[in-house]
Amino acid sequence: MWFAGVGLARDGYRIAVTDGGGRPVGPEELYGRCGPERPVARLVELAARAPEGLAVVVDSANGLLDGLLAGAGVAVYRADPPLLADGWSSGGALARLGSSRFGELVPLGPGGWIMSGREGEMTEAETASGPVERGLAAAGRCLLGGGGGGGGGDGEPTVALTFDDGPHPEHTPQVLELLARHGIRAAFFCIGLHALAHPELVRRIVAEGHVLGNHTWSHAYLPDLGPAGLRHQLGSTGEALAEASGAGLPTLMRPPYGGRSPELMQRVAELGLTTVLWDVETNDWARPGAEVIAERVLRQVRPGSVVLMHDGGGDRSQTVAALPLMIDGLRRRGYRFVTPEELLRPRNRVQAAPGAVGSG
Fold first, then answer.
1. Where in the sequence numbering do the catalytic residues fall?
2. Domain 125-352's class?
């Protein structure tokens, strides 16, 4: 069997392949400044060539390829702590884990996702984060949505539309066109690797008056990372967005999957970033239909809500189709569209240093 590791470097995706003895099968390959389709196509090709099959090894810092690979019939395995490197796991290191510690890897399966089997752990960590979130919200460093803290809780019918996982060359322009048609500013929480591939869309987002946010380099589960890994994921993304947009470093951040822990929330604040969560969940990634997506927004929304949607990471045509329905429905209810930054504006908020929050 061959083992392929996918490293997530500053210049793109790096694929390394070893045989069962850990010996390299050809040189490491770079797929730079591109979407995930090219590295996925290459891994599908390698799976067809491998004498006894191919196992692709990823870690929880890579939430971009697992679904695409599983959908293409490629076997995917996840390396969990303590096997992970903090920050950038190289393709070679991940491939060697396959050949040397295969029994310690977690098979994701055809219907799995990158965090399969760890849902309970994630929920516990998020619950434990509550006191820190409330402290950060009081200091204006966390937005919970729906009047839950961090602004937007004065009863005024305002709502913020937010989009994750872009930019995407097909769906992001469609979302931008709809927002322009309706005169709405929104927030786009971008993946660093996608910004690297499509800098022109990052520029367009800013040029059309929208807010850029940091959604990590590779859709990472951030609680698995130490301080260095967190700086790599957020710092590299911030630099890529600033370079593409010319608008400076983003100050807003959203953790992929909403994955957080008390320690992570403190570290993000210490890096000078404000965490933006949400209270309206559309689950548009599951493609339930445009009418269902719009209905979920109208059912859950309340003054100060933050709506989570996606413009990247897969087929987002239903999200695009749902937007006019939800916009019209919200306006009929008297809602005004604002950005997360507007919801975060101080309203007699207690000012606290980032290192002092979280005690209640």
1. 164, 310
2. alpha beta
